[in-house]
Amino acid sequence: MSVITVTGKMETEYLGWILPHEHAFIDLRPLVPEPQAIGAKSLAAEKVSLANFGVLTRNPYAVLDNAVIDEEEIVKAELMAFKRAGGGAFVDLTLRDIGRDPVLLAGVSREVGIPIVAGCGYYIHASHPPDMDDKTVESIAEEIHREVTVGMDGTNIRAGVIGEIGTSAVIHPNEKKTLIAAAMVQSETGLGLHVHTDLWARRGLEVIDILTAHGAAADKICINHVDVDIVPDYLKALLDRGAYIEFDNFGKEFYADRRHKSVLKGVFARDIDRVRTIKELIDCGYLRQILVSNDVCLKIGLHRYGGWGYDHILTNIVPMMEDEGISPEQIRELMCDNPARFLDSDLA
Question: What integer pLDDT is reported at residue 40 of this predicted model?
Fold first, then answer.
């Protein structure tokens, strides 16, 4: 078994403890609605600091600066914290729509000594390029195929996973085109395929239907963000289709009330809720289909800005899992074996 990293091919047995869904660098600022009130506009223009940290735990998009991670030295320090905690490999699902930089990723990977796997494809409709209506399923498939076989953005740095392909609360026609294109490439290459689903809409079954109808293997599909509004019957329905599901919001326990709803629509589950749900699903026989990560995509997810960092799973969640009765062997399968199997492909 092997995987394509931004610095070349690597055997999965050497990946160790894997974060299957993260962002080393990302820029979500274009997706944040512009506030209208004078006070809100003033707050949006601030830099992230202790003075506004409390506000950001209620509405993480109240300060626009929170929606971008672009400070290379800080990112290196955060990745080193993950490595010191025992971390092995890191999957970066930032797409070109939201700030992907393959050269920067490869340089950081070499300097820090952590294998990084990059994603490819298109994110949600709101981030699509102006010419997206003109793109065909075939042309999108050609782009994705080129990025996993030749290189991304004019480089020879290859993507090693498809996604995170974006879908909205209602799947937009251009998002469906991208799903179909991604399914075609997945069928040909055997790559894992990550799909971003709206945090509250529960469109995962529809996504699986679209992907499998166009050739994607169900056991190489991962439905992301299932742990914000946890509905066990929905999770089991996804798992019964053979797909992976991903608990990737560890460290995020936001609550956006009616005054602060913009990108977020309400309450997030707590980390303990996530762990207890994983334990329930393991007890039901779904251990091999679960991935866990942090999906750090905001400054306040980093230690430097008051968050838990990329090492949160290893440092804090693993002990919580043990407290809830998940065995060390099961934890290793969640963190090592499952993501390695998902990332393995015919191309690598």
Answer: 87
**274-290 core/surface letters (b: 16 or more CB in 10 A; e: else):** bbbbbeebbeeebbebb
CA dihedral over 254, 255, 259, 262, signed as positive or negative? positive
Instruction: Give pLDDT, residue 348.
Output: 61
Residues of the chain with pLDDT under 50: none
Token representation of residue 4: 């394509």
SS3 105: helix
Which amino acid is present at 146?
R
Contacts of range 104-107, beta carbons closer than 8 Å, 24 or more positions apart: 104/25, 104/72, 105/6, 105/24, 105/25, 105/157, 106/6, 106/7, 106/157
pLDDT 10s digits, 298-312: 999 999 999 999 999
C-alpha span between 276 and 13 (Å, rounded): 29
If you ran DSSP here, which 8-state letter would residue 275 be given?
H
Measure CA 22 to chain center: 5
- Asked if residues 204 and 197 have their Cβ atoms less than 8 Å apart, the reply is yes
241 vs 106, 191, 212, CA distance in Å? 35, 18, 10
pLDDT for position 255 = 80
For the beta carbon of residue 258, count every other beta carbon within 10 angstroms. Answer: 6
